[in-house]
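Take a careful look at the sequence and tokenised backbone pasted below. I need to know what the token row says about the fold.
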Amino acid sequence: MSGPDLHEMDLESFHEEVHSFSFWFDAVRGYLEEESSPDGASAAAEAAVVAPEEREDLIHVLCDYCIGETAALEGASALIRLAPNRATKIFLATQTVDEARHLEVLIGRLRELGVEDVEHEIAERSNPGLRAFKDRLLGLIESGDWMGALFAQNVVLEAMEFSAFNEHAATADPTTKHMLENIIKDERRHIGFGENEIGRQLKSTPWLGKRLREVRVELDSLVFESFDHAMSHLNVPGDQHSHLERTYLQTIERLGFA
């Protein structure tokens, strides 16, 4: 990537640079412009044939993913008005574009699988726990809880999606695998932003840890319910569900929310 040497910047300049649109564009243009077709599948990838019995389960899981990405899309865009400074607002604008792209690609995959009325299928098949998570996230934003909402979205939701997408990609058909791996590239950046912003605030605001633990306790059960729903449709054995939950918890606990 061209541009200034990040290691030589002062902290304020560093944050401004990594939150910028130019930094975002350099980070994503390789797989949005060069490697991917408009629907997010590799231009060189062979068309994946999904067996009829696997198709229904995959549709269920992709409907869940669409709810998660819709929550992230609406959350990122709404958080812009709560963000405390210009650089943070700009980063959230880039995240909003990411989430819109993810949702668009997931819907494209559903259509490839023969789903005609996507909105109906998402409403019918998606997990109620995920829909409740979305409502709770937007409620935190509506109440003006900047840190609580940022934690719910860029740590809890992104960690949930990062863990689930990694697990799914390991056994997915080639087209779905390629799609998920590209989405995961963005999730890493979103989680890093959340961890950085919240970590800096925790140093100066000790009481914030208690508040974020309260948010996490409320959301964890919805996360685990969503995992169980998705993994059951991917035919993942029950003992591996706990592995997925541990991966999620390890991501959350890096900030000290044990």
